[in-house]
Amino acid sequence: MRLSLPEILVRPQSDIDLKDYEVEDAAAIRGGDIVVYDLAIIEPRTDENWETPEAWEFLDSCGNYFGGPGNDNIYSDPRHITDEFLRFYATDMWMYNLGIRPGSLFLYRGQVHAVLGLECEPYDMDSIGYATGFLVCRPAVGGPPVRVSPEYATQRVLELGA
After folding, report:
1. How much is the pTM?
2. At residue 158, does pLDDT exceed 80?
3. Measuring CA to CA, which residue among 20, 65, 16 is closest to residue 38?
């Protein structure tokens, strides 16, 4: 079974009120140095709904992220987002919406691998951290854990053969 990875929609937030921001931030937004973005994770678009945003299926969304101008786009992978701040938050949202869970099996480099979890980096003392964009996996035949990029974990295996 092949898994299609979700896409990332980055678009300028349309309903901002500059009075809600610090004076310096409001000035930067007004001057065009900062854009306030919404981030959304969407199911992959199809030929039928490619240009019809109302038909897209939204998996997750969040707003009020600052980024540089020119980042509004639809991305297949958060690594393509040039703004570091937007990329950091988009990666975390995207990873948690992949549908790849611990125990999932997939083919990678000709071997079945099992997902142990998402690789996370600590953010503060009270959280599990933010996803780095990699899965932590182990070959089903044994061996040390390996980091795997999600695009290599799309050929799913439903069960191990005898």
Report:
1. 0.84
2. no
3. 65
